[in-house]
Amino acid sequence: MAIRGVLFDKDGTLIESDGTWIAVFKAFLSEVKKVGPDEVDVLMAKAGYDIATNKLIPGSVLAAGTSQESIAVWWPELDADGVAEKYRLLNHDFAHLAQDHMKPLMDLVPVLDELHAMDLKLGVGTNDTHRSATGHMHQLGVHGYFVEIIGADSVAIAKPSGQMIKRFADITNLQPHEIAMVGDNTHDMEEARAGGAGLAIGVLTGNAAREDIAHLADYVLNSIADIPTLLRKLK
Fold this sequence. Notes:
- The protein is of the alpha/beta class and 235 residues long.
- It folds into two domains: 5-16 and 103-234, Rossmann fold (3-Layer(aba) Sandwich); 17-101, no CATH class.
- It is 48% helix and 12% strand.
- The protein has helices at residues 17-33, 37-46, 61-64, 67-74, 80-93, 95-101, 108-117, 130-139, 163-172, 186-195, 210-213, 227-234; strands spanning 5-8, 49-50, 55-56, 121-125, 148-150, 179-183, 199-203, 219-221.
- It has a six-stranded parallel β-sheet with strand order 5-4-1-6-7-8, with helices on both faces. Strands 2-3 form a two-stranded antiparallel sheet.
- The radius of gyration is 17 Å and the shape is globular.
- 43% of the residues are buried.
């Protein structure tokens, strides 16, 4: 199987998910809902936050879904316009908090350098927004490695619809089966299947344990650092 492109999930795959987003969501809820820490935790738990471990639950709305899906959990009474306003608020007024807390899971440059040297086309496919994800990659100094950064708002239906794989294929002039989808959550593996990707590669740097994603993945690796070796073996 000839893999010529790699589409990376972002949170839990390239950057630390819990450390980046839990603080952002808590600050957002505290300020907008005007509630205290205990009530914030209850709201967070409704969308997939484990209060006891201070982690996001694998496969939950918070761990794998879009901002709109989280907002719909927290404000079920809102219509589409109301959700859109909260979405704008989260992704603009609170964007600086994500940048303040963001940490890469490792030094990304050596891995991306190696993959780039293998003549692979690289992209990001995330259920975060295009604007937010682009800002994160710029902040980490790795934006130039990616042909395209695809956000939930870059396609009609976010992961796991398969549309991100298909969009990346169109942009790169690759066939879906020439693309490997890499991610830490079930949504990423399902995106690979729905989009016809050649490989679904799970990594254990996010919320999911091996048993959470192994049944959906072709391979489960410790981190993206293992991808160059895997792809060389598969040539």
